[in-house]
Amino acid sequence: MFKKLSIILLLIATISCSKQEKDSTIEIISPNAKNKISFNLKNGIPTYSVSHGETKVLNASNLGFVFKKGDSLSNNFEIINQSETTFNENWEPVWGEHKTIQNNYNQLSVTLQEKTEAKRKIEVQFRAFNDGIAFRYVYPEQGKDSIIIMDELTTFNLNDDGDAWWIGAYQDNRYEYLTTKSPVSTLDKVHTPLTIKSKNGLSLSFHEANLKNFASMTLSRTNDTELKADLVPWADGDRVKTNGSFTTPWRTLQIAEQPKDLLISNLILNLNDSNKIEDTSWIKPHKYLGIWWGMHIGKYSFWESPIQGATTKNAIEHIDYCKKFGIDHLLIEGWNKGWTPAWYENAMHMFSFTKEADNFDLKKVTDYAKENGVSIIGYHETGSNIINYLEQIDAGMGLYNQVGIHDVKIGQVGSRLNMKEWHHGQFGVNYYRYVLDKALENKLTVNFHEPIKDTGERRTYPNMMAREGARGQEYNAWSDGNPPSHTAILPFTRMLAGPMDFTPGVLDVDIKQGYEGRDVHTTAAKQLALYVVYHSPIQMLADLPENYDGNPAFKFLQDVPVDWNDTKVLNAEIGEYVTTVRKDKYSEDWYLGSITNEESREFEIQLSFLDENTSYEAQIYADAEGITWNSNAEKVHISNKIVTSKDTLKLSLAEGGGVAIRFIKK
Questions:
Q1: pLDDT for the residue 11
Q2: How many Å apart are CA 531 and CA 538, to the nearest integer?
Q3: Per-residue CA distances from 561 to 288, 385, 564, 584, 619 (Å)
Q4: What is d(CA 259, CA 196) in angstroms, rounded to the nearest whole number?
C-alpha cells in the first residue's frame, strides 16, 4: 500500500514538474501591493504582464533578442533559477528636488536557459516599485567575444488605448519638436519618455534608466495598442555591438493614478548607480546670466563681426551686471575660434577649444570675473564634429582648469554626430558618457545641449547638471515659437527624464530688440513661475541684463533657489496646467509656481504645506488684470499678503499666464 502511494505521489510530482516547465507563472508585487508584474513561461516562450490593483495595464508582452544573421534568443527556454529580494533605503542626492529619496522595491530575478545544444542563458530582473515597474536583461559572457544585437523583441502590450503625448523618432532635430497628442493606436515610431493618459484612468510614462554602452530605445507601434522596443541603429545598421556579454538599460513604466503623481516619481533616479564622486564640494547649483539671448534675437552674432557678442568689453559689462544683481555665474558663448555665419549647418565645422576669437581675452575676462566674485561658464560647441572635439578635449578642458572655469556647456548642433551617427545610438551614448568622465577628471560640471536623453545619470554623476533635449526658449527668438501649451506639456514628457536647461526668465516677452514679430508666447509672470515648475540645478536668467535692471519682477528671479529640500505638486493636468511648491534647501522659505496653457484659470490653493502655527509673508507675482500672453503680457501685478497653513489662496492665471509666489517664514 505504502509503495503504491509513493508511486502515485511521484507521478503527481512528475506531472507538476512537467506542467511547471511547460507553463510557469511567477509574480512580484510592489511594497504598497498595487503594482504587480507577472512573468510567464509557456511552451518555452517568456512573457510578462503588469497590473495596477484590479486594472490590467499590460497584457502578455514579449521578451528576447535577435542577434546577427537572424540568430534569435526568444524561445525554447526553461527556468533554471529564480530569486526574490526586497530593498529599502533612503539616500541623499547631492542636489535635487528632495533632500532625501526613498528607494524601495521588490525584485524578481529569473534565469532562463535554452534547451537547445547551445544552452545560452539570460537573466531578466524585474523590479516593482510603488510608482511603477522596471526590468532589464543580463546576458553573461558565454564563449563568444562578439555579439551584435539586431533587434530587441521587448513589447509593451497595452490593455487599453488612451491619449499619448509624443515626439517622432528619427528626425534631424533630435528631440527638438513640438509634442503631438493622439491616441496610442495611431502612433508610429516615437521617442521616450512617452506619456499616456489611459482610458482606464491611469497616467503612464514609458522610458528607460541607466542607459550606458547600449542603443537608446525608441518605441514603435506594431499592432493596435502594442508598442515594441526599437533600438536606434548605427550607420551600418547594427543596433548594439557587444564584447560577448551585455546588460541592458532598465525598461521603465511609471504608473500614477493622477497625472500630478508622475511629476514626483523618483523611479528613474532609483534605477541608477549610487554617486561615484567622493568630493562633491566643487559641484555648485547656480543661476546664471549669459551672452546668449542677444545672439539668438539678432542683437549680437556668434561669430567675429561688428556685432560680435563674445568680446572682452561685452563680457566685462555682463560681469558688472552679475555683481550688481547678485548672480554669481556668467555663460559666454562664441569666445573661441571657429564660429562662422554657417556654424549651425550640417558640416564638419572646425572649432578650436583653446584659441580665442578676435576681440576676446580669456585670461583678462576670467581674472576680472574672479575679482568680482563671478564664475565664468565655458562653452564647447562641437558642431557634431566629434572627431575634432575629442582630439582637443584634454586641451580644452585643461585650459578651463588653468583659468578657473568649473562649469562647461557642451553643444552638439547637427543632425548626426560626425555627420554619420545618430546622437542617441550606441555611438552617441558612449560619446556622451566619455565626455562626462572627462569632465569629471577635470572637475567640470556639464550642461549638454543637443544631448542624449536623460536616464538618471545625475545620481551617479552629480556633475551632470542639466541638459536640453527639447524645444527650449530659443525657439521663440527665431522661429514661430512655442505655443503656450508647450510649457504645460514638458513637465509630463521631457522633464520626467530629468532636469532641463529650458533657459526661462525672459521678461521682455515681446522681444522689442531683435527679429521683428517674435515673442516668447507667455506672460512675464509665467516666465517667473517656470523657475519653480521646471526643476534644474542650473537656471539661466535668459533675458538681456538691461531688461532686468530696474524691473521690480526681477526680484523673484534673484530670490528663487535652484536646490530644494522638498517638492509637492498641488494640481496638474497634462498640457493644461501645473501648480508646484518647493521648499528651499537652505532656508524655511517655500516657493510656488503655477502655469497654464492658452486658457485662463482660477485655482483655490490650500496652503497646508506651510508649517503650522506660524505666519508667512506671501510675495505674489501675478498676471496683471486683463492681460493675455499676446496682449500686454509684460505686466506683472506684485502684492504682499500674510498667510498661514490654514489659509486658502486664490490664484488667477491669464491666458498663457502664471503666478509665482515666495512664502517667507515670519
A1: 34
A2: 10
A3: 12, 36, 7, 6, 15
A4: 10
- Give residues with Cβ within 8 angstroms of 95, minimum separation 6: 283, 285, 462, 537, 562, 563
Smallest CA-to-CA distance from 355 within 377, 374, 371, 339 is with: 339
pLDDT reported for residue 21: 52
Instruction: Answer whether 354's CB lies under 8 Å from 391's CB.
Output: no
Nearest of 426, 327, 336 to residue 369 by alpha carbon:
327
Give 12's contacts (C-beta < 8 A, 6+ positions apart).
none
% of the chain residues with pLDDT over 90: 95
Enzyme catalytic residues: 474
CATH fold for the domain made of 503-666: TIM Barrel (3.20.20)
**Crossing angle of the two packed helices 386-403 and 426-441, in degrees rounded to 10:** 20
Among 346, 294, 298, CA closest to 318 = 294
Domain 22-270 sits in CATH 3.40.190.10: no
**pLDDT band at 5; cut points 50, 70, 90:** very low
Listed by start position, the domains of the chain span 22-270, 276-469, 503-666
Tell me the HSE value of 497 on the side-chain side, using a 13 A CA sphere.
30
* pLDDT tier at 20, thresholds 50, 70, 90: very low
pLDDT band at 513 (very low <50, low <70, confident <90, very high): confident
Confidence class for position 206, pLDDT limits 50, 70, 90: very high
Enclosing H/E stretch for 368: helix 362-371
Asked, colleague to colleague, whether 276-469 and 503-666 share their fold, the answer is yes
Q: So what's the pLDDT on residue 190?
A: 98
Distance of alpha carbon 170 from alpha carbon 158, whole angstroms: 23
Residue 15 has pLDDT above 60, yes or no: no
| Reported confidence tier of residue 2, pLDDT bands at 50, 70, 90 | very low
Task: Tell me which CATH homologous superfamily contains domain 276-469.
Answer: Aldolase class I (3.20.20.70)
Closest CA to 317 of 368, 355, 271, 283: 368
Pairwise CA distance, residues 618 & 440, whole Å? 41
Cα distance between residue 324 and residue 441, in whole Å: 33
